[in-house]
Amino acid sequence: MSASPPLFPLEVHDLTVSYHTKPVLYGVDLQIEEGSLVGVIGPNGAGKSTLIKTIMGIVPPSGGWVKIFGQKGKKAYTRVGYVPQRESVDWDFPVSVLDVVLMGRFAHVGWLKRVSKKDRSIACECLEKVNMLSFADRQIGKLSGGQQQRVFLARALAQESDLYLMDEPFSGVDAVTENAIIELLRELKNNGKTLLVVHHDLSNAKDYFDQLILLNMRLIAHGKREDTFTKELLQKTYGGRLTVFTEIAGQAASSQTSNQFPQKHL
Amino acid sequence: MNLNFFQFVPFFRTILFLFTAGSLHAEQIAEDSSLSIQTVRFLSLTDYSVQIVLLGVILMGMGCGLMGGFVVTRKLSLFGDTLSHAVLPGVAVGFIFSQSKNSFSILMGAMIAGFLGVFLISLIKKTTKVRLDSALGLVLSGFYAVGICLLTRIQKMEFGNQSGIDRYLFGQITGLSTADVLGMGISCILILLLTFLLYKEMLVTGFDPGFARSVGIPVDLLQYILWMLLAFSVITSLQVVGVILVSALLIIPAATASIITQRMKSLLFWSAGLGILAGIVGTYLSFLGNRLPTGPLIILTSTSFFIITLFLHFRNGLLFKWIRSRGKEQKIAIENTLKAIYQELENHNFSEDTITLGNLAKRRRINMPEAHKEVKNLVKKNLAFLLLKKNQTLPNEDILSLTPEGWSEACRIVRNHRLWELYLTNEVHYAPDHVHEDAEKIEHILGDTTVRKIERILSNPRRDPHGKLIPSQQDIEQGFIEKKVIRTV
Amino acid sequence: MDHFFPPLDLLDTFAMPWASPEDIIWNGKIVAMGFFVCLSCGLIGAFIVVRKLALMGDAISHGILPGLALSFMITQSKALLPMFIGACIAGLLCSLCIEWLQKKSPLKADAALGLTFTSFFALGVLLITQMGNNAHIDAECLLYGEIGFTPLAKNLKWGAIELGPRPLATMAMVTLLIISIMIVFYKQLLVTSFDETLSISLGLPIKAIHYGLMLLLATTIVAAFESVGVILVIAMLIFPSTTASFFFSRMPAILFSTIPLAFIYSFGGFFLARWLDCSIAASMVVIAMFCFGLAWLFGPVDGVIPKLLYRKVSV
Question: For position B27, what pLDDT does the model report?
Fold first, then answer.
């Protein structure tokens, strides 16, 4: 545990998460520097989405902590923009594209005030950036997968956050959208924002991100892409798991949550 | 109607409706119907009405319990609720059709209405984006309202006053006739038949309909049979507990059973058993007072079974889980104390076999009273003993030594800790400065077999990542005597 | 059979209720009561439905019964306020119980809900039968209410001003409360319903908003159910927004369309009940069901027939 400079956009220490008694993440340590574009890769069920969800406080950790810009807890989240996995959104919800993007502005609006013209024009700008302005009045369910993803990206832009967490923004997306998204991510990064992106496609991970996090239940490696995207480390990430480790980690997790029934995840 | 009544008590009406469910006049219980006499009357089963009512609730409890087992495991609990509301227009139409309280036409009407309701739900699900819970609510309230419209209309018609149709809303066990019990019996037999003949098919369709279809099980047909039997049991139970409480008969026993067991077979068994038991106990309780409402009492009995199970079930009950976790905490505290003592001794290269209480407290980072308490726990478990110094003015100088058992336990725990640290460093490739915290947790839960497995993987190491000695299996077995061996190493 | 549906006498059904000033006031109060209930429940219901809590309304409306009974037993009076408080407490307790069971016990969400509210209801029935004495019985009131008695209730006074019959005045106030809360906190309600994660990063108190909504729901149920019964309340939580969603796909439009729908339900139900001489509240639900059916078939958004037509055109 080295003495850290005070303000990492994201700092995760010894994070352990378990569903029921099955550990998903085990003792993960991360320090992400400002202005980096970081890809999280690992096999299915490696806990990539769980990492993001735990950072966002959706999934409670069974050990360890998360600091965002040096802060813990609810206040910290106001500087985070989150792009959810497409599956977790209720697409039948009666809101239009513009409504969704405007939601991103609510942090800047204040409790009792209405959305101002300025917020509206910012929202429109963000939509323009992702090329979705012409769909502003559509109900969100009536868009293609790529378009839906772009709407949520626009919302994250509208939030004007400093740290972005994105859960598989490239899944179910056409090639054009994928390029557009990665351009946008780079632009954000160049503006000094920090981005943590869960990604499932190994073939282009190296081209998209400057830094990579290799994750498979535990942190395998974190660093520059040249250092981490090596055959050996990838094999370690995607190779078989450590049986004893999994087993014991399971016991540990279950002993920590033994005084309550396992949490349900629907 | 008394106008003044409504001027004063708009709320009162809403409350008073239920007085039909029982008696308004909680009459003084006469001497000859005292508790014991009523009990004897109830248990001896001499009364015909007691016999018929008991038979009714037993059949009802069994039928609904079994159905509930299927329904709850398929996450259809609220379908029962919807179904019980949806049959109401059918009851009314059946009544209009026969113009009398003819059980058969009412039963048929209820069946048809129930099916229509279920069909509408699936149609809404299929053709719209309306969510299931909303669809249930729509059908439930819509059908119920149609039923109420018809029933209030009936009451205004000349044949309506003989209806006594209220009992479908609130249930009235005293009105239970032989024909009603016969209906319950038939539905119960059908349900039993389903359970015994189609058990494995029902199990498969409930668990994984896609798979069931692929192995050639007629999933839809089974679904319809399930609906039909559910409708049967709901309709026949309606007269005992009323529309709203019917779903409780389905849900509560099965929910209780689902805490007790995770196997379908025993779940059905428990669910039916609990249904019957709740029926009998509820009926008995209502028999004690002067016309206490039977339906609600059956439900409340069932609920209290549930609450008791939820908290007091030995394996899965919340209370015992809590106690067990408390026990675990204590065990962990003891183990941590032992480890601290070991480390103190190790710090002095095992040159002494005692440590002072003050040093222990310092190492555990606790204050003296806490240290005293921990040591007392150790002494109680015969893991350590206190040697009191003559100088009693300095309690920090109280001296403590381990018994052979304590010594062996301390070795075991330190060994677990260091083995795990080594495992994490060598096999999982953690940095050596990262493994301590994790080992702090793991050391308490490593079982013998796992320890052996790790030993094998690491090929019986002697030193942990920090270069400290891992006390070996032999040291543990030899206990206190081997301490000197360690000292010399 | 043939006299089950009486002949539809247009004059008697539609004109007679408004023949004299007294009639207009009398029947107007009934329709107004229905309108307020439909409107307030519809507004809350729009959010309840998108939050997937549609059956929570059902549960809470049954769960308030023991609260009513206990507050009556304790105060030995039928005063409005204690009953109101009792019912709100019981309603919230019921929803807390459900959530606790869903979280801490191995029960599935639907079983936890069904178990809790039926137990609460059974307890309420038992309590009521225990305290009984000396009054008329109006058996059906809780379940489908008797809105027709609204004009008979004592007028509520505020200082020297007569506010109208108590149930009506209470309901109007609750409606006003709901409308103002919807206007002021629209954003927060919308975001927390749509996306909890975003709400976290916006720093919104998700729990507080959830329980605020539950309390508002309990308040509405208690105020409404005084005169219209449980069934109209449950129906009105779900029907208006679901019906409107066949026409509009934005929240504000759905909320606004509650107004005309409430209007149709209350007048339609009133006339239907007048024709058939049956329960007014239940008739309003029947009308609501009818409207839902129409919307289902013809609604431009996702209706059955437009969908069929569209498919034909596109082929």
Answer: 35
